[in-house]
Amino acid sequence: MCITIAPTFACLNFYYSIDDDGDLHEITQMHQYFKKFNKNFNVKKICKSLPKIEEKLKESGDYKDLSDYAIALMKLGLFEEAKDILVELEFAHPEEYKLASNLGTAYELVGEVDSAIKYINYGMELNSNAHEGSEWVHIKVLETKNHLKEDSTWLENHTVLELSEKQEADSNVLHQIFIQAHERFPFTPGPDPIMASIMLDLADCFAAKTSIEHAKAMYQIAKEHFGDTSAIVNEKINEMLKLRGKYDGIFPERRRDNPREGEHIKIDGIRYGKLIDDNDDPPYEINWEDYETNVDTLLSWVGLEQIDRTPPPIEVLPPDEESVGDVPEEKESNTWLIIAAICCVIPVIGIFIFKKKKSNQE
Length: 362
Description:
There is one protein chain. 53% of the residues lie in helices and 4% in strands. By secondary structure, the protein is mainly alpha-helical. α9 (193-209) packs antiparallel against α10. The longest helix has 33 residues, at 329-361. The chain is elongated and about 65 Å long.
């Protein structure tokens, strides 16, 4: 019996975004940007993983497992404990860029910004491609924190990243900012002016490079979630809405090379709330008695111990005001002894030279 198999074709639908110049972009090139921002960590899930990491750590005695445990503690809010663990791990393994980078984050979370800058920079020296080359954004955030210490109004006249037009149109820059914003989101509950500024910069990149709809949603996150009350954020949101109307008649054309493809659709109306996840709803209550949090105990499992690595301050005694400019008596007496010795030695040397010269003449 002869069976004929008729060809069948799937109906494929392609989605496109539009940028602020009216150019269309296939959404398949930016699917990762539909990944939601987590406003908090999944506490229940992390707590469930802790005993497994602890058991593995006890068996292996591997510092990498302890690093994973410290990161879990950091996500659960035990910043000081995580920092103390990572200090010893980094000291024992100074060539591990992950330890340097994680220690920099821990220092930031406990408020030690200068130390954070030191270790994030060191991590970048060890691996310039860390976090897909996005750590320069982290450094900018830390520098902004220092600016705000000196001038609380600094962000009124600056943005965190101070992007150029060329950077805003660079897809690599967009991707790197997105990575850092995504990682910082659960550590930074709103309102937060630094995160609001980062979301503004990210939105500017979306508008210039790929999607006015994504840009509008990012501007709204800056406003609604991170509390940006500036006039500029409203202006930017309205600008994206105007562009939507302006480009309303632009649609992607069906590909001529494959007429059996499905409909090509331009995305419209991304709701910012759909881009944010609440991973701790309802809030999970942690029973800390179930988990090991003692730093000394945890370090002992990898053969380390906690040491105070902060050098004691050098005490400089102020000079006695009455003796300023005077020579101390002991030094003065020593000076006279030296002069006396020189006076005694010079005649002896002279006599020796005179006798030797006379002897040579004879």
